[in-house]
Write a structure and sequence with these properties.
single chain; 15 helices; three-stranded antiparallel sheet; alpha/beta; 42% helix
């Protein structure tokens, strides 16, 4: 019923939104005398804000046509190299001929990096800045999760077990030299997938894992989302947060956690900040500040584009990770077998946290080191980035200047042939804060 009300509301407001858009364009037309008056600019700005806040935002594009390597622009082509009903693996292929010209004496290829994007309401394009920063020195792949309302119900379920399977399949598809970056929510699944491969003594265990701002142990420094997950029983989430996808969406009749509910929750956490941002946007429009207005559009075009999650994945994640802390307590099962992170010995581990993270508090990601005691200490790095929040852990100026170079150095350090990985444990773990 909730989803149907949302669709009805969207349909009802669409004529007004379109009228606002047409009126705004008419007021801004250079041949319209009102476009040069204060009243005309203010009215056009108000109409623009109304149109944008009532719009439904579609899936954004990565829009990364090239990357800068040694001062030269190298073309980048997006390719889908692996596909399942709920995920596609996207590869950003850099022009091989130009790469050969830039690195004529390079015998070892650039490290292969699999970026596992969060499946938590936003599209993988939220990590556009992460991909862009990694492209110059790496072969970059990213998980492009599919909106659950676009997946027909005959494709079956998708839960946390399937998520772990998907990650393990992608790791093995890319081979034993892959380095995995888990950004936020996928940390537990990536750690679990690595544990599953380690227990199998699989030859394609990842060379390294970089886990960033992730709820490995949400008991540490609990944040508002952690407290919300604990404040209600799982039945409350089942009854209040789950809805059925309506016709004519391809996933009609599938039970989901709607993206618009997730977005409402995110917005409510920092409502004053979002209201102020839209006030500033209005002022930028009135003052003809094109740069300021464009920055606002770019951020909210991404932030307001949301996707649905399957009911079973959402509820299992809430219950197992955020309420019962099964991974942290060593009681998480996958396909009937206990997840054993202590079996991971050949995969280097780096954790990254933000000092001001209000989604995954300090210590939640670091807990991965405690769960993996048999990774040699010289293969572990624990880094805390000062003066950044959750988003700054994987995007923004401090990520590009301070976090990404450390990640790149860590990956290069452990980008070795399979038979040369591991080693005798050193007496320390590198920490920086």
């Amino acid at each position: 019923m909730l989803y149907h009300l949302y669709e009805i509301n969207h349909a009802a407001i669409t004529p007004f939104r379109r009228l606002a858009g047409m009126s705004q364009r008419a007021l801004n037309h250079p041949l319209n005398p009102l476009s040069y008056t204060g009243a005309g600019k203010a009215t056009a700005a108000a109409l623009d804000v109304f149109e944008r806040t009532t719009r439904r935002y579609g899936k954004p594009k990565f829009d990364l046509p090239n990357t800068l390597i040694n001062g030269m622009r190298v073309p980048v082509t997006e390719q889908i190299v692996w596909k399942r009903p709920f995920c596609r693996l996207k590869y950003f292929q850099r022009d091989p001929e130009l790469l050969a010209q830039l690195h004529p004496k390079q015998t070892h290829p650039d490290p292969t990096v699999l970026i596992v994007a969060p499946l938590s309401g936003h599209y993988a394009t939220l990590l556009r800045g992460t991909v862009e920063a990694m492209l110059p020195g790496h072969e970059v792949y990213i998980t492009d999760w599919v909106d659950a309302r676009m997946v027909p119900i005959y494709e079956g379920r998708f839960d946390l077990n399937d998520y772990i399977d998907y990650v393990a399949e992608m790791i093995t598809a890319l081979g034993p030299q892959v380095h995995v970056m888990a950004v936020c929510q996928p940390g537990p699944a990536v750690l679990s997938a690595a544990a599953v491969l380690a227990e199998q003594n699989h030859p394609c265990q990842p060379a390294s894992m970089v886990i960033m701002g992730s709820p490995i142990d949400p008991r540490e420094s609990p944040t508002e989302p952690n407290r919300l997950a604990m404040s209600k029983p799982i039945e409350w989430f089942r009854s209040q947060m789950i809805s059925t996808v309506p016709f004519p969406n391809p996933g009609c009749m599938r039970e989901v956690y709607p993206g618009f509910l997730q977005l409402a929750g995110f917005m409510a956490m920092n409502l004053d900040r979002h209201i102020d941002a839209h006030k500033e946007y209005f002022e930028h429009l009135v003052e003809d500040d094109g740069d300021g207005a464009q920055k606002h559009r770019e951020f909210y075009n991404e932030y307001l584009a949301v996707m649905d999650l399957t009911k079973e994945f959402y509820l299992q994640t809430i219950e197992d990770i955020f309420q019962e802390y099964k991974l942290a307590k060593g009681t998480l099962y996958h396909r009937g077998k206990l997840i054993k992170p202590q079996l991971i010995t050949r995969t280097a581990l780096m954790t990254v946290e933000g000092e001001n993270d209000d989604i995954s508090g300090i210590g939640q990601t670091q807990a991965a080191h405690t769960l993996c005691p048999n990774i040699p200490a010289d293969m572990q790095v624990d880094y805390i980035q000062p003066k950044v929040g959750h988003y700054g852990v994987f995007n923004g100026s401090r990520f590009r200047a301070e976090i990404q170079p450390r990640i790149a150095d860590f990956i290069r350090t452990h980008d070795k042939p399979l038979e040369k990985r591991g080693g005798i444990a050193a007496p320390r773990r590198t920490r920086a804060a």
